[in-house]
Amino acid sequence: MICLFLTIISYIFQSGWTGVNERTFIAVKPDGVQRKLVGEIVRRFEKKGFKLVGLKLVRASEDILREHYWDLRTKPFYNRLISYMSSGPVVAMVWQGLEVVKTARKMLGETNPAESLPGTIRGDFCVEVGKNVIHGSDSVESAQREISLWFGPKELHRWKSSSSQWIY
Ligand code: IDP
Ligand code: MG
């Protein structure tokens, strides 16, 4: 009885309080797919220790893209951004782990590749802001909104990673 109680408490502590269930939405943009960067990008997130819980290759509809980039609708580059993002398939992913939103943004680099440090994805693989190969949610709230926009609940998978005890 005590063991069961301790197991439940430790599960709640691990998954809820320590934030290891935080999720972010990452998308390899059409230029990243065309330039064969999907494997490299997935490799970086896997090797970091994050857990993949959703992945699909999709040709995003204009409706999804306009909703996804709603905050930027008044920017002069907005229409160009929508046509860039709908110019080919994107690889949409959900990654999970402790502080994954903040860490993923660091792994991506700055919005403008010219300001992104070497070692970051944008710092290593692209040169211009209009073709910056990858998207990553900028906050936990945006991540929740973007994940529910791009993925249905059945497309997100709960699974136990055998390496998690070596990461947490
Ligand atoms: P983020 O992708 O780093 O979060 P945001 O400011 O949210 O940057 O912009 C979304 C996307 O819009 C960028 O990733 C980039 O593709 C595009 N973008 C942002 N600023 C410009 C610009 O000044 N010119 C052209 N495209 C831009
Ligand atoms: Mg953004």
Automatic annotation (TrEMBL):
- Amino acids binding ATP: 29, 77, 105, 111, 122, 132
Q: Does the keyword Repeat apply?
A: no
| Matches recorded under CDD domains | NDPk_I
The answer to keyword Transcription applying to this record is no
Q: What is its main location?
A: other
Reactions catalysed, semicolon-separated, are: a ribonucleoside 5'-diphosphate + ATP = a ribonucleoside 5'-triphosphate + ADP; a 2'-deoxyribonucleoside 5'-diphosphate + ATP = a 2'-deoxyribonucleoside 5'-triphosphate + ADP
Top-level class of the enzyme under EC nomenclature: transferase
Q: Where in the cell is it found?
A: Cell projection, Lamellipodium; Cell projection, Ruffle; Cytoplasm; Nucleus
User: Which PROSITE patterns does its entry note?
Assistant: NDPK (PS00469), NDPK_LIKE (PS51374)
UniProt-annotated catalytic positions: 135 (pros-phosphohistidine intermediate)
According to the lineage, what is the superkingdom? Answer: Eukaryota
EC nos: 2.7.4.6
Report the sequence similarity comment from the record: Belongs to the NDK family.
**Any idea what this protein is called?**
Nucleoside diphosphate kinase
Say which species the protein is native to. Oryzias latipes
Taxonomic lineage from the root: Eukaryota, Metazoa, Chordata, Craniata, Vertebrata
Identify the gene encoding this protein. NME3
